[in-house]
Amino acid sequence: MKGTMTRTTRATLAVAVRELAAADVGLARIVARHGHPPLWARPGGFRTLVRIILEQQVSLASAATLFARVDRELRGGWAPAAVVRAGERGMRAHGLTRQKAAFVVALADRSAADPRWFARLARASDDEARASLTSLHGIGPWTASIYLLMVLRRPDVWPPGDLALHKAIGRLPGQRATPTSEQAVRHAERWAPHRSTAARILWHGYLSDARGR
């Protein structure tokens, strides 16, 4: 089974940041300018995975606003039974797109039918957890990787297709353009077995620079 069930902690994150900064001048510059990145840990379970689905291809702020509003308005809030009861039509009435309404209802169906599914994800290897997540309608490699990185806190995960990471890599020394997803995946291989920490450093730098502009 590829991958481990090791969880990143603040202590292991600090060690990984030091190792990456010592080996990579681009990451070292980000750390020197902005400090160590946050752990960005999220609780496991249905609500968090729904939130990640809502974050697909939109800003974090707009996803947070939609999540909070539906949580207030939907009878029962973001609970599997409440989403199943509302169905796709009901979730669309609460502001979800047709596509994301289908995604969250499929997840709610799975969660309601198999309440121990999330607990098994936490005990699975990286590959097993990724395969289980992506078997669901609407959960692709990026969504699965964010769950592994931020919820399961696996240390060597790279989220493919993350535009912020692509832009951050494009700003590193020696880079002339924003890479494609495949190019970013290949570039990130140099940061194994700390790719999750490299992603955190790059996100931290990208977001910090954006706030500073």
What is the structure about, briefly put?
The protein has 213 residues and is an all-alpha fold. It contains twelve helices and no strands.
Please give the structural blueprint.
Elements: H1 10-23, H2 25-34, H3 46-54, H4 60-73, H5 80-93, H6 98-113, H7 117-123, H8 126-134, H9 141-151, H10 163-170, H11 181-188, H12 195-212
Helix pairs in contact: 1-2, 2-12, 3-4, 3-6, 3-9, 5-6, 7-8, 8-9, 10-12
Question: What distinguishing features does this structure have?
Answer:
213 residues, mainly alpha, Endonuclease Iii, domain 2, Endonuclease III, domain 1, 65% helix
The H/E string reads HHHHHHHHHHHH
- As for the number of domains, it is 2
N- and C-termini, Cα separation: 44 Å
Can you count the beta strands?
A: 0
Proportion in β-strands: under 5%
The overall average pLDDT, rounded, is 95
Q: At the fourth CATH level, what is the homologous superfamily of the largest domain?
A: Hypothetical protein, domain 2
| Structural Rg | 18 Å
Instruction: Output the CATH topology of the largest domain.
Output: Endonuclease III, domain 1
Low-confidence stretches: none
- Percent range for helical residues? 55-70%
**What is the global morphology?**
globular
User: What's the CATH architecture name of the largest domain?
Assistant: Orthogonal Bundle
Question: Biggest β-sheet, characterized?
Answer: none
State the CATH class of the largest domain: Mainly Alpha
The secondary-structure class comes to mainly alpha
